[in-house]
UniProtKB/TrEMBL annotation:
SUPFAM superfamilies: SGNH hydrolase. One of its GO terms (biological process) is gene expression. Keywords: Hydrolase. PANTHER family: ISOAMYL ACETATE-HYDROLYZING ESTERASE 1 (PTHR14209), ISOAMYL ACETATE-HYDROLYZING ESTERASE 1 HOMOLOG (PTHR14209:SF19). This is Isoamyl acetate-hydrolyzing esterase 1 homolog. Probable lipase. It comes from the Eukaryota. Pfam families: Lipase_GDSL.
Length: 249
């Protein structure tokens, strides 16, 4: 009975959260070798990494659903970090893909709106990371479009306009930014190996994203404790003494 009472008296464990919000490049990031899966592995027993990626979505739709994903609660419920990773669909050409296309000015307004909303539910700019879309390999994506029975519906130069707009929003709002569009093309390198089909990330592309994103995430989670004690540190005779504390081990 005493042990049951002791167990019942343990305070609930607060498990911090990192929220990944984006389109298919986020949705697919939990696949084997994906950048989201790598983040989750690095943060195991420190915080949960939540995948809220929605394949095919643009910022027009993302802005609408964000309040359903993050609500105002206690400070302990608030994500310790949030990535906002859109633009690959917003930048689709209007004439070829009007459903996913979002005009550049609206794209900017939508990003600003999401940042404002997160601020209103106690997720300040210092916890945000805005990620630009990666560059588009037009030759590979043209083949993908051909297989789907449509014309090339994106251009890398247009994606670049949305990437620069994303960076400007981050700068104006005081949020961190990861400029994949520029980094993947640095020094004129061939970036096609970072993409599986010209648009989505290959295994190498996932490694690239993780390697550049992790330092930004690490800054925001470095103070988080390892939750619950290492097994060798658990008191053998009375384990509840070790396991019903605050988990700061």
């Amino acid at each position: 009975m005493a042990l049951c009472e002791a167990v019942a008296s343990g305070s609930p464990l607060v498990w911090p959260r990192v929220l990944l919000f984006g389109d298919s490049i986020t949705q697919f990031s939990f696949q084997q070798g994906g950048w989201g899966a790598s983040l989750a592995d690095m943060l195991v027993r420190k915080c949960d990494v939540l995948n809220r990626g929605f394949s095919g979505y643009n910022t027009r739709w993302a802005k609408i659903i964000l309040p359903r994903l993050v609500r105002k609660g206690s400070g302990l419920d608030s994500p310790v970090a949030v990535t906002i990773f859109f633009g690959a669909n917003d930048s689709a050409l209007k004439d070829e893909n009007p459903k996913q296309h979002v005009p550049l000015e609206e794209f900017v307004a939508n990003l600003r709106s999401m940042v404002r909303y997160l601020r209103s539910v106690d997720v300040p700019e210092g916890r945000l990371i805005l990620i630009t879309p990666p560059p588009l390999c037009e030759a590979a994506w043209a083949q993908e479009c051909l297989q789907q029975g449509c014309k090339l519906n994106r251009l890398n130069s247009v994606v670049g306009e949305y990437a620069r707009a994303c960076l400007q929003v981050a700068q104006d709002c005081g949020a961190d930014a990861l400029d994949l569009w520029t980094l993947m093309q640095k020094d004129g390198q061939d970036f096609s190996s970072y993409l599986s089909d010209g648009l989505h990330l290959s295994p190498k592309g996932n490694e690239f994203v993780f390697s550049h994103l992790w330092p930004l995430i690490e800054k925001k989670v470095s103070s988080l404790p390892f939750l619950l004690p290492y097994w060798r540190d658990i008191a053998e005779a009375r384990p509840e003494l070790s396991l019903l504390g605050d988990g700061d081990h």
